[in-house]
What does this fold into?
Amino acid sequence: MTPAEKLHIHHEKLIGTIRDLAERAKSDNAEASLLITFCSEYLISHAEAEEVTLYKASTDAAFVESMIHEHREIKDILEAIGSAYGKGNSAGIVSETEEFITLLDKHFGEEENALMPGLTKELSREELEGLVQEAHQVEAEKKKSDLWSLFEHDHKRIDFNISRLRKSAGSPEAANGIYSKVRAQLLKHIELEEAVLFPAFSEHAEPAQTGPVQVMIAEHREITSILVTAGNPVDGNSLGQNIDALIGRLAVHNKKEELILYPMINRALRTPDRVKIFKECFEGMAAV
Ligand SMILES: [Fe+2]
Ligand SMILES: [Fe+2]
Ligand SMILES: [Fe+2]
Ligand SMILES: [Fe+2]
It folds into this structure.
């Protein structure tokens, strides 16, 4: 496989997942959290790696400058999606996401149709192969695998759906649909914390640091006891009380995780462990 083909395959994988997540975000705005999380982990590290390897080797300074500018635009649109998401601005999420995909398609096309052919002419095959290999390594090092922000984004996704649930209280059918989503996402989130995140942390933490984990697990039991049993429809009355209790418990619980536990977990785990956990937990979250 030539270095250009390797880059093409890598791009195809990235853009394939990003397109799926973008479609998901457009049809269900709460899911924009997955798009943002995926891109901040896998796309930003890719762009940063290119700048210090492939871009640096090119002799076409003006072209490289325009490509680096596009990387900045990619980051800016990603931030704009995040800000529309934070404001619950559906139209903003949809239009920014569309713009994002258009720019990415253009950008990847330029790399494959202009950058790589140029480099193929300027460098020997061995040199270019070495460069792509280096890009790959730098990309792996640049990944943040920030478990704190991964789980915090999942909190936001669940909060987004809970606020929808509140608005849908007048329509039992819609309310039940959203309720089962909230239920599934919340149970998955708790499962990932208890089966993946917390055990990995407990293994590497000082014994004195694991107290908060026990408190969080006890709070999970209180939170799940509020949830209506799966398959049982929720009527307007029970739903109202349910949502208020859930919002109250989750607000306190999530704050503690975000302010105390997640930062501790990020610090305690080594990068290779965080890379692995990030992937597993992201896939688990995307499955519900
Ligand atoms: Fe790029
Ligand atoms: Fe690229
Ligand atoms: Fe939790
Ligand atoms: Fe959590």
